[in-house]
Amino acid sequence: MGTPSREGTPDARASPSSMPSQIPYLVPIKHRTNSGSTARSIHLMHELQEHLASVEQLAASRKAELECLREERRELQREKSTHSLGPARLPQSVSGTFRSTETLPPKLRAIIEDNKMLQHELRSYKQKLTASELSMTVSNRQLAGLQQDIERLKSQLKECSRPPEVVATDKQHAEVVEDFQRQLRDLRSQVAIHSKARETDTKRFKQTCQEHVKEKEELKKEIESLKATIAERDKEIRSQALEVRLVTKQLDPLKRSLQEHRKRDEEERRALELAEKARATAGTSHKALAAASPTVPTAVQQTSLRQRVLVQDRVQIMVCIINQDAQEQFYLKSAEERLAKERRNLPKPETAAIAIQAAFRGHFTRQDLKLQQRRHKQELAVVKLQAGLRGWLARREVAALRASLERAAMGSAASDAAPGPAGKGRRSDVPRRSAFVKAGQDAPGGTARTVVSTAKQARRSVAAQQDAASIQRTGSKGVEPGTARAASRIGASHEVPSGRPGVLGGP
């Protein structure tokens, strides 16, 4: 087939297990002197360089083998594709028609035999390809191991080339780095633990905050309910206080009547005591007179009879005084019954509160209406002031414009009436009218208009300051404060006439 055979190469059949045995095992040997150690290290370095060169040659040979195997694989694939497209399919179709190759023609039989040989070769090539692929994987693994060995040997070479003090310091530094890395890992684990603890604490704090918020809302609701109950109790207390006031007002005349009765009883008691004393003295004198003349009724007897009648009446009054407590209880009961009847007839406290609120609202609305009417009057006064000022300003501007027009016309007329040639002393009024028209056209932007406007602005500023001061004085004396402030604002922005009768600020 023309493919290069791999059997001729001596390194192709070398076992991969025999390669690591060729690598010298480097053992650190302690030397007594520095010269011996340097010589030993130089020798080891040379050996290592030779070994590296051999490894590189082996890798190059393996790469060449891999390339050869890839080429063989490509050729096999090409042959397979050509035989599959050509007469390779013919024996399969023919073998179905003919039961044996003996009955086939010789050309077809030769083609079938060639196809069988090609298939056998294809199977052998496939086996070789799988074996080569396996060897390639093994060689790749060996190459990876060799590269690791090379790296290890390079590190050993570096260690051998350096002095032992540097190696010791490097080891110490490596140990320090490992310690720092270990501490860093511990710190990171502690940070993770603290972060988790913080998360749990925040969750717990949020839960406690939510509970506190719920408790706060419940307390607010309780406070609102308590406020409502307190308001209801306040209403009840107010209603009871009103009832107590009404009762006290109704009890005042009863107390006065009781005091008057007590005073009368005191006076009657004193009168009775005096009567008893008089009766005792009169009884002794009457007995003496009766013993002297028992048959003749004298004036003394008549007076004693009268005194007896009085005494009987006074005795009845004393009985009434003794029953005074019972009478007070009776009066109190009757007063309570009367108050109960009046309380039934009285309106409820809610209706009374509604009536009071309605009366207060009416009073408040009436006061508000009065205030609005007063403000409306003040605004009307300010509007009138503004209208008067605007009219006066317009009239003043018109008068100034007329004066400027008249001056311009007079100047043009004087120039026209100047002495000229003979026969031209008097002219018609046409130039005068043209001068008026010209002055009217030039007035808004001419020199006369600018002079008048500058003088007008100066007079306006002076008059505005004077009239604002006068309006403030008049407002502080008799005008409303709102109108005074409005007039001061108007005077600051517009010109106020000064010295004209019939207008604000004039005499």
TrEMBL record:
The keyword Coiled coil applies. The keyword Cytoplasm does not apply. SMART domains: IQ. InterPro entries: IQ_motif_EF-hand-BS (IPR000048), P-loop_NTPase (IPR027417). PROSITE patterns: IQ. Residues 108-278 form a coiled coil. Residues 463-475 have a biased composition (Polar residues). This is Uncharacterized protein.
